[in-house]
TrEMBL record:
PANTHER family given in the database record: MULTIDRUG RESISTANCE PROTEIN MDTG (PTHR43414)
GO CC list: plasma membrane
UniProt-annotated location(s): Cell membrane
Membrane association type: Multi-pass membrane protein
Sample GO molecular function, one term: transmembrane transporter activity
Keyword field: Cell membrane, Membrane, Transmembrane, Transmembrane helix, Transport
Name the UniProt record assigns to this protein: Transporter, major facilitator family protein
Organism: Lentilactobacillus hilgardii (strain ATCC 8290 / DSM 20176 / CCUG 30140 / JCM 1155 / KCTC 3500 / NBRC 15886 / NCIMB 8040 / NRRL B-1843 / 9)
Annotated InterPro entries: MFS, MFS_dom, MFS_trans_sf, Tet-R_TetA/multi-R_MdtG-like
Domain Major facilitator superfamily (MFS) profile: 12-399
Amino acid sequence: MAKSKTPQWKKNLWALWFGNFATGAGASMALPFLPLFISEFGNFPKWELTLYSGLAFSSVFLSQAIVSPMWGNLADRTGRKPMLLRASIGMTVSATLCGLAPNVWTLILIRFIQGTFSGYINNAYALMASEVPQEESGHTMGTLTTGNVGGNLIGPIIGGYLSGMFGYRLPFYIFGFMMFLAAVSTWLFVKEDFKPIKKSAKLGIKDAFAGIQKKWVVSAMIVSSMLIMAATMSINPIISLFVRELMHGHGNVAFISGVVAALPGIATILTAPTLGKLGDHIGPEKILLAGLIFSAVVFFPMTFVTTVLMLGILRFLIGIANAALMPITQTVMTLETPASSVSRIFSYNQSAQAVGAVIGPMMASGVAGILDYRYVFLMTTLLVLINLGVVLIAYRKDRGKRIAPID
C-alpha cells in the first residue's frame, strides 16, 4: 500500500482541532450560566452574587497562572503530547466534580484545582508552532483557533437549552465527557517529532528569550494576550445576569444568554482563517492593530444597549475583532520564537492569559456590584485602548532597535 501523502503536521492539526473544539464546547456549555448555577446555592444579594461569580470564574485561571511556567518547562523536556494528555484527563475529572459541587465554596475550590491541570489549547498551539512550516503558520493558527471558537459557538447554545430543561449540573458532566474524548483523540492520532532540550540547558525566563530577535514584540504579544483575555472574559460573570435584566426576568434566560454568548464565536469562526491568511501576506502587525481599534469601537456602545438584540449585534461584531487578536498574537510568537524555547514562551503566554482571565472578571464583578453591569463595557474599552498603546510602543521600539546600528 502506498503511504499517505498527508504530512503529519496536518494530521496533528485536525486531531488538535478536535481537542480544541471539545475544550471550547465543554467549557462554554457550563461557564456562561455559572452565575445562574451559583444563585441556586442561596438567596444572595447582587453584590455577593457577582463576587462569587467572579471568584468562580477566576479561580481556575489563578491556579493556571501559577503552574503554567512549570508545565512549560516540563514540556520542553518531555514533549507537548504528554502535556495535552495531562490537561485533557485532568479536566475530565475536575469538570465532572464541578457538577457534583454541593455549595459555592466547593465549586470555587474545584475550579481552582481544575486550573492546575488545564492548558490543552495552549499546548496545542505550542505543538503546532514547533512543527508547522513557517509559510503556513498564520493560516494554521487561524484554523486551530476555529476549533476552540467553534466549540465556544455551539457550547453555550446547547448548554443553555440543556440548563433550561434539566438544570445547571448536566453541562458540567458533558464537559467532562468531551474532555475524555479529547484525551482519546490526542492519544490515538497526535504524533510529535519531539527533540528534547539538553538536561544541562537553563530554563529561566531570560534563557527562554535569549534566542528571540524581536524581544520587545514577543513581550508585547504576551502582555497583549493578558489584556485581550481580561477584556474578553470580563463580561462572563455578568452576561447571563445582564441578559436577565434586559429581559426583565421573563422567558428562557439561560437559552438566550447562551445565544448571546455564542454570537462572537460565529463571527470569529467565519473570519479567523481569512484574517490569518491576510496576516501572512500583509504582516500580522496591521491585522492586530486594526483588530484592537475595531474592538474599542464595538465595546463602547455596549454601555448603552437597551435590548438583547442590540447586545447580540454588538457581540457578533466583537467576534470579528477577536479573530484579529488572539490568533495573531499566537502567530507572531510562532514566527519569532525558536523551537527550543517555544513551549516556555507559550507557557508564559498562558500564564499571562490566565492573569488576564483573573483580573478581567474580578474587576468586572467589582464594577457591576458597585455601579452597574453597563459600566463593565466602559472598563473593557479602556483595557483595549491600553492594549493598543502597548502594541504600538513595542513595534516602535523594535523598529528603532533595527535602525539604530545604521546611525
